[in-house]
What we know:
182 residues, alpha+beta, 4-stranded antiparallel sheet, 3-stranded mixed sheet, 11 strands, globular
Amino acid sequence: MKFKTYIMEDALEAIIDYRGKTPQKSESGIPTLSAKSVKNNFIDYNNCYYISQEEYNRFMVTGFPKKGDILLTTEAPLGMVAKLDRDDIAIAQRLLTLRGKNNILDNDYLLYFLQSSTGQHLLKSHETGTTVTGIKQAVFRKLEISIPNIEDQRKIATILSALDSRILINTAINENLRLQAA
């Protein structure tokens, strides 16, 4: 399998970043995600807050997240990754929203790459800070990533996704057995 090296920003169609900005919260409206909402391969919608449609229109000026985009926490903690499963979302602090460039970087492959020991090492080797460590967007944009061709990326992501599905099924079976035994 051949790999080609890209600078991250050259492999991405979009890097949406709302770090350092906090929209005005409301009791209901559009769910707004922050780093607290993102776990590996999971978005905790119970750990989000809401903003009004007006605030969404005013706040989300640098880009709109889309279903299938990859969310990456940039600090507290650095390196949690999940795939966005809906469109009607606002993004707040300590999160990057990433979208691979068509026919260069598959979003599902990017998800698994960033979760891998290689991807985690790449992120952590570029983190800065003392009390709270993280990676700056300018640094993230310049990271080098070696990736196979798009067909191989899709094959790898399909295999890993199937394994994730089996793990979820097995976890549910084990939990059911545990409850029955109790």
